[in-house]
Amino acid sequence: MTKDLYSIPDIIMSRLPVYYQHLKKLKESNKTYVSSEELAKLTGFSSSLIRKDLSYFGTFGRKSYGYDIFCLFQQIRIIMGFNYNKKIILIGAGHLGQALAYNKGYIERGYKLTAVFDKNPKLIGLVINDLEIKSISDLENYLSENKVDAAILTVPEAAAQKTADRLVAAGIKAIWSFAEVPIKVPADVLVEEQLINEGLCKLSVKMNQPRINKSEVEEDFDCEQK
Amino acid sequence: MTKDLYSIPDIIMSRLPVYYQHLKKLKESNKTYVSSEELAKLTGFSSSLIRKDLSYFGTFGRKSYGYDIFCLFQQIRIIMGFNYNKKIILIGAGHLGQALAYNKGYIERGYKLTAVFDKNPKLIGLVINDLEIKSISDLENYLSENKVDAAILTVPEAAAQKTADRLVAAGIKAIWSFAEVPIKVPADVLVEEQLINEGLCKLSVKMNQPRINKSEVEEDFDCEQK
DNA sequence: TAAATATTGTTAAAAAAATAACATATCCTA
DNA sequence: TAGGATATGTTATTTTTTTAACAATATTTA
Question: What is the pLDDT of residue B210?
């Protein structure tokens, strides 16, 4: 493969996890091959789009057969970097943080959760999913002694930026942030913002559409402008 | 507003929660107006795009001033349906379910979490965030006696489709699903799929890009095809 | 082995989305 | 009150993304 992959288009990247999930399921069936048409039925994307997406990365299919499920699954894992081992830590062991500590998704994606930190003395020392919650004051010390590839940020809104600054200062280059508003980091640090309530918003918008269509919306919110 | 809004383009819809978050923050500052240029700095979208997005819904700005923060915030709330009261229930009180039971995001978006269900007898009766966990066997009964607008689905993968079927049969028209693979529902039911590990995938892909560029990828995964 | 069938990978066309440009309107200052 | 500055809303242009079409090729069937 000679193509420069430095920047996979976001739109393609956003579909990779969907392909991954379906191939994972298919792998457990007794089928060996899957066609773009079948994948289209499963994913909701058009077969044409699927073939195009895959061809961006290489030539994986077999004419008149389709794609070898296991092989394609492996390819996508490699493209997504799942075959590469990464260590990740979690900062903030509140309700969401704890749920993420029990998340089963790390291993198959090449992550190992190696430490959990919190500020709350009542939480420090507790064990969640075999990891003892450490004091956030040990963060820098821990990071100087352990190579860590990424951090999950689930601290309260008010502490998010400060904590991110500490992570960056200690050398962390990738952050999965659950802060509600973007945190600022240097250009060489990756941040994946996760608006936890985005799905709730989308659902609300969609539920609301019939209502919005019926009424002359302006009246509702004449904001006494000007 | 005469424009038919029946289907807000997904791409615009996906930016609404971002505008919402920033306006919420701005509202707490001492500023009254914000320009598309300032919003661009905050959100990372271009000012042109922001003006275009907003103009899709109406004319909210004020020449040479910008947008009235509070007014725009209200408008976006109305577009997203946050001003409309909705009742939502949660099915599956595992780690993720519990975290979502404590989620602070419902109220401001017009949702009220009114019940939590689980199958596990050890959980039934426990109280999380002031709600006593009910037995899943009471689901149909509850739904026949209480008007509910949406359901959060956080049951284990294996139970997801069956549970969704029950919800649909009981009249639920909107589901926020955390199942890893799409659940099948009739056309008149809204489903918002939430791949909880999508952010983790994206982070992994991005971390992986420099590595993928360096190597001739094919070699890595010669799947002995054919 | 030849014809019919299936399905890819790619090219061409269409549609959608983003950006740039600008006319217009309002505000501010002198 | 005239002129410069500001920032919207919209139109034009460019770019990106998706869909459609199809040639190429492998498989299956007769």
Answer: 81
